[in-house]
Batch of 2 targets.
Target 1
Amino acid sequence: MLRVWLILLALAGLASAQVQVRISGWGGTDIAIVNGLLKEVVQPKLDRKGIRVVYQPIEGDYTQWLFNALSAGTAPDLFYVDIFWSESLFASGRVEPLDGYFSKQELAEFLPNLIQAFTYKGKVYGIPKDFNTLALQFNKDLFDEAGVRYPNQQDTWETFEAKLQQVQSKLKDVAGLCVVADFARFGAFAFATGWKPFDAKGHTVLDENFRRAFEWYTGLPRRGAARFAQDLGEGWTGGCFGGEKAATAIEGAWIAGFLRDKAPNMRYSTTFLPLDPVTKRRGNFIYTVSWSMNAASRNKPAAAKVLKALTSPEAQQWVLERGLAIPSRRALANNPYFQRPGKEPELNRVVFQGSGPQGGNVYPFKFLAYGGDWMRPINDALLAVMTGQKGVDQALRDAQAALDRLTGRR
Amino acid sequence: MRIKARTLEALYALLLLLPFLFSLGVFFLYAFLRAVYFSFTDYNLFSPPRWVGLANYWALFQEPSFLLALKHTLLYSLVVTSLQTFFALILAIALNRPLRGITFFRTVYYLPSVISTAAASLLLLWLFQRTGLVNQALSLLFSHLPHLAGFALLFLGLQGALVLWERRRGRRTPFLDPGLAAVSLLGAFLGTSAFQAWGLLQAREVRVDIPWLPTRASFLGLPYPLWAIVLMNTYTTIPTFMVLFLAGLKGIPRTLYEAAALDGATPWIMFSRITVPLLRPVLFLVITLGLIGTLQLFDQVLFVGGSGGAPLESTITLAYYVYGNVFPSGATPRVGLASAAALVLAGLTLVIVLLQRRFGVGERGWS
């Protein structure tokens, strides 16, 4: 009997020597990826340090859950932070600045754009785990059938539109592109003109450059180069593309998984977004997610070790080689994976390079701490013009007025 | 010590009620009191609540989107409650007839309320798409207007001729005599088909593509997307209220109708003097439940606004305003403002129900 107790005691001692670090992210396809990563790369490394990672994925609305958990003090040690709502969270003071745990050199190993995106008031609050940008996907079979040259990276808005028009007029029931009334897509074209979402005072001004992009984008359906996605019964450009209702799409690497299920045999290829004919530049968004640390965590040193293991070169290599996400480390730019033949490595390569010099004017997908409230006036303007309910002048005036109310201009 | 039987009984009652009282206390009373407290503070879930007095309420009534939500909610509630009560009553009376196979019809008419709101919302999205069934049906209708007009003219002409002929022969025939109408309808149909075949009538090229959901256009003060929700909600809630009315109708003694019939009362008199007054308790229940349910409209708004692409301005309701402020996309929660809005909604519901009870249909039946 005594022996049993001794063994139990010894086991309890071992267990207490092990530090538990709780991590959380959203569910869906991420669960299999993180579990694989933990099992094959992260946990073996941490076993030696006596750290046990407990992974609790969250199904349902992750943002609501995280805000509630942080407010109630039940949040895990490490969690995902999406760039879109990052500033409102960092401003709350519930997220630990990471400058004390990562040296300058360590931070410099990540893409500078991404580190900048998670920097708030001079401090780094998150280590990017992966990212995405927009790229242009086109269906080679549809272009061949129409006898039109493929889009390429020298295309400007004008030459690209001409190709779309040809496709749409030759293949009656296929749209060149299906456009959405969403700043998350249109914004890339507005950035190409040199327009900035906020001026130095934090105000938004819809200037002549913005207007030029707006007129081009909203006029695509009228000029026979595109159709409005909702009219085709779709909510995103990838949906039209996957259903062969449109010959091109403007999406990030996330479209790969969708196409694998929806149209596994589609011959598609990827290139950069077209250039603004005036500035000869393109624009792009960075959509990224970080691992961030709970400021109220009780074992921060251990949590920092887990954070490093989750974003280590080995971990990112593991994820990249399976084509699951695009790595945030600079060193992986020359990874042989990107040079592999095939549509998916090509897609991932273009998306990876979209964050750098080839991406042109690149901004993270965040709008100070305004979030969706900032995008809504612009989205409403896009919708009103594309469905013919307002003229460009009226729509932009209304959007400017709503943005002025929001940002306190005037 | 001996406990009195009555006290013991009360204690047992309390014991059995305890689980319910507990959940009521935690999830209703406590949450309600917290919301009342938060409504007087500036609170974002993170920094400690700061007392601001009535500032939130003041801010609410200056915010355009709140006022819009208030207007939408009130109008929507009025329209849907009237429509669903009226049609549920009509349907219940129709299904209360002792007809053969009436149970089958009762089942069929009850089916819509079995559909979940999510599924119904999805159906709604498809119906009202720009290339959806509604626009296609309208296109078909408008492009065949010449046929319809021709059909109507032929019918009227034939019917008029037939009726005149009958009257000439000394028979008193009403204009819409069913037998003659059947003959005229057939004639008009054949005539229209013949005109179509000879090319005298041609379908016009009409394509209706009204964007029903992604729009800001409105009709009688309510935006199109909300009208779409009105249609769907009326359709799915009528059956439930119809069942309540059916139960109420069964409780009205037949002898009253028989006595009225002996006195020579018309069906309309029987309906307005016997059925409606005796149904008053049920009517009160239906109207009250309808008002409370419609004032809290939320999930359909989420669907039509999300996947339907309807702009927020065209669909926002009070309940959605509350949700949108507790969890604004990408921004800091505005819990104080949302709590104030939630309390305004609660107060509004209470006031409307009381007003309805005082000035509308009361719960008292026959007095």
Target 2
Amino acid sequence: MFDKGKMAQVSEGLEKFNEKTKSMLAKNPERLEKFVSGSGDEVKGLYTPADLEEFDYSDIGFPGEYPYTRGVQPNMYRGRLWTMRMYAGFATAEESNKRYKYLVEQGSSGLSVAFDLPTQIGYDSDHELSEGEVGKVGVAIDSLADMEILFDGIPLDKVSTSMTINAPASVLLAMYIAVAEKQGVSSDKLRGTIQNDILKEYIARGTYIFPTEPSMRLITDIFEYCSKDVPLWNTISISGYHIREAGSTAAQEVGFTIADGIAYVEAAIKAGLDVDTFAPRLSFFFNAHNDLLEEVAKYRAARTLWAKIMKERFGAKNPKSMALKFHTQTGGSTLTAQQPENNIVRVAIQTLAAVLGGTQSLHTNSKDEALALPTEDSVRVALRTQQIVAHESGVTNTVDPLAGSYFIEAKTKEIMDKAMEYITKVDDLGGAPKAIDQGYIQQEIMDAAYYYQKEVETGERIVVGMNKYQIEESAPKDLLRVDPIVGENAKKKLADLRANRDNAAVEEKLAALRTACEGSQNVMPVIIEAVKVYATLGEICGVMRDVFGEYQQSVNL
Amino acid sequence: MDRPIRVLVAKPGLDGHDRGAKVVARALRDAGMEVIYTGLRQTPDQIVNAAIQEDVDCVAISILSGAHNTLLPKVVKLLAEQDASDILVVGGGVIPDEDIPFLKENGIAEIFTPGTPTSVTIEFIKANVNR
């Protein structure tokens, strides 16, 4: 970026500066011996052009252009703000439907469905393993009947809907398509995202069902089906969020997420799909932690790396295949149960990070989420935080405003290099599925998590209100609670459904599904047929469990 | 010399959040205890069977899914049915304060909520195991 003469001047000046400050620092030592980022990387006291000696503006280019370092749109938030998408769902379809309508009324611009654990793991509410879990961390969906209630009065041609569903993603997408059809909305008009990222379930999130191979097949079946029938749908949200929540560093979040992305692209190409038919619908999902500048650099690094990998490694030609679009959620693990109001401030910083990093959509956590699911009031504050950043902070007026900062550009490069080292290591182990089987990725994340915990416990890392500035507090009130009756009611509803539907049709469709699973035809059309006759999620996943078997977790500490 | 304290770190129910369980397991191990980790998705039956088979002094249950009031007392009850009430049961995770009295009445010796240093858990187990 700078010519050689100028650079020499800077280096000379820097030497003098360091010399001059040496004696000052000898007299007045700095607060810490070593300053580190949120991820534990050393940060110098000063960054100058000397840190960007090899930097050239063409490395980052213009926004909306390869390699998309500065953002995926030429004018970013001057055109359209990010989608304010609050993840919500609890108890019953009726309750969740009410919360969605409230959020839309308050200015939320997209829906994001949280399912309960039985739904995420493919069990009906009356399964013995569902005991105590029904409606707890999200809404319970057993059949199309619940899905019809969930989206009642919400026009599916107008909203975009994100569904955090992985192992049974095909089934919930099928239900969504079926509900839309009943509303008179054809599937080519549907906009939204299914998470559909099984690899990070094995790594960090835990709601897997089937072994790796059939899981990857289900995912590529979805890619193929949607490329023809649901062309505006984001078929996967390749997620670093949970990897980071499990304790990874920022560079690991980027490295392991992109390694997962590479595995999906390879699987789809192997299944005979052309990279440019499915890659434009791949999307990503990242975390936002408290170290503002490190996080901004992280998003920029991720975009740049993905663009290069898609172009150079996979030969993508469509620019949309190279542009990394991502959703962000603020970091749940950064929230404290102590003095929960402080979390509002943390979330505001994280929101700034995501926006300065160029996110396409954002969920902001509520202050009470280290304690329970959020109440309506605390969700409103979280949403307002996004609106304040959007309309009052001024950071949306210009594209990628931190570009060119000596520190930001140096940090972007540093994270890219570190992430690339992880990607290379995963490649050496035979790709993400094999690296997961060998426990490599889990081990790396666990080491980082344990290191962080020790830093917090020794007080090296300060968490305000938790290990410093504590106060005596009374137990927080007004937490959201899910009534245990929800589980009982869901069981009754299922019994009614099973008694009143056309059970012969259900048997027939489930048999067709079995045949499809055993063969190699795309499973999506038969799953759609099955949900339409009100086969339950548990019945459909039950057939797939039978044919595919179940994933066995490798446990290591 | 006494044998080291043996602890079963358990994840009941369908909850996949295991960062806390793994961090605590490592911390207990670094504190000199012998630690067995069950992995995810254990039923109360499976946890109790593992506890008895492994002859542990303590079962440490991690749960963040909200199903604690159902699953934790069940573990205590099943241990009693197996004449293993001498095994100390503790819990940790996202558990609202107002649920803690109920859990303690049902035989959970202590609940460690978010932000608890692992040293507190270690000291509690050392001081309260029956041996």
